[in-house]
From TrEMBL:
Keywords: Membrane, Transmembrane, Transmembrane helix. The keyword Disulfide bond does not apply. It comes from Hymenobacter luteus. It holds the Pfam family DsbD_2. The chain crosses the membrane at residues 110-130, 142-167, 179-202. Residues 1-183 form the Urease accessory protein UreH-like transmembrane domain. InterPro entries: UreH-like_TM_dom (IPR039447). PANTHER family: HEAVY METAL TRANSPORTER (PTHR42208:SF1), HEAVY METAL TRANSPORTER-RELATED (PTHR42208). This is Urease accessory protein UreH-like transmembrane domain-containing protein. The keyword Transmembrane applies.
Length: 227
């Protein structure tokens, strides 16, 4: 999760009076990442909600699982190339240039802005989380899903930026090796849920959407004739 950027954040711990500012700057940087993740989650939730309204709820869950499997199969070094094929090379170039400019400053606003931009850089784990956010319940649910994803990375990323050696190198390698297995398990869960196998809580069978009952026709009033 962009550990190299966390280690390269500007500013150095100094006297006791500046230690609080140093920690606060690292917190602002990570909160910037969480803000971007939540915003991207809201956009993914908007797409997912549109597909659900079109009656594609189960298909969306299966598609999310297949997308996660595809992201697992594609090596992370190819994510930047994929972004270029999607026409994102120029926006990503602007993000990297602006990020380099912000890294020359040590103010809280600059560090928060660096976190915002860091959330836009190509990252396989973020893509995996966004694929899951497509199936989250509603826009707010998808935004909360991605915010929780960012907050889940905060302790490790904050500790890494503060100490630089919070997790030994061999453990970092093991964690990276475990990511594809965890992502595959999540993908299988989405696919099974979307198949509607009738398994309670795991893969419930969804019936057809209820239709509004037509109003009962009132019997015609009797007409009295004079003869």
């Amino acid at each position: 999760m962009c550990g190299a950027i966390a280690l390269a954040l500007p500013g150095r711990p100094g006297a006791a009076s500046s230690s609080g500012r140093y920690v606060a700057g690292r917190l602002l940087y990570n909160l910037g990442r969480v803000t971007t993740y939540a915003t991207l989650g809201a956009l993914a939730g908007l797409v997912g909600q549109s597909l659900r309204l079109a009656g594609l709820q189960q298909g969306l869950s299966v598609a999310s699982g297949c997308l996660i499997l595809l992201l697992v199969a594609v090596p992370e070094r190819h994510t930047a190339r994929l972004a270029g094929l999607l026409g994102l090379a120029r926006p990503l170039g602007w993000v990297k240039t602006t990020l380099a400019t912000l890294f020359q400053k040590t103010s809280g606003g600059a560090l928060y802005g660096a976190g915002l931009l860091n959330g836009l850089l190509p990252c396989g784990l973020v893509y995996l989380a966004l694929a899951g956010a497509l199936s989250a319940p509603g826009i707010a649910g998808a935004a909360a899903y991605m915010a929780c994803f960012g907050l889940g990375t905060l302790p490790l990323m904050l500790g890494l930026s503060l100490t630089g050696q919070l997790v030994p190198l061999h453990w970092r390698r093991r964690l990276r090796l475990a990511v594809p297995y965890a992502a595959t398990g999540l993908a299988v869960l989405f696919i099974v849920r979307g198949l509607g196998l009738g398994i309670p809580y795991l893969s419930p069978r969804l019936g057809p959407a209820p239709t509004a009952a037509a109003p009962h026709a009132q019997p015609p009033r009797s007409v009295h004739y004079c003869h």
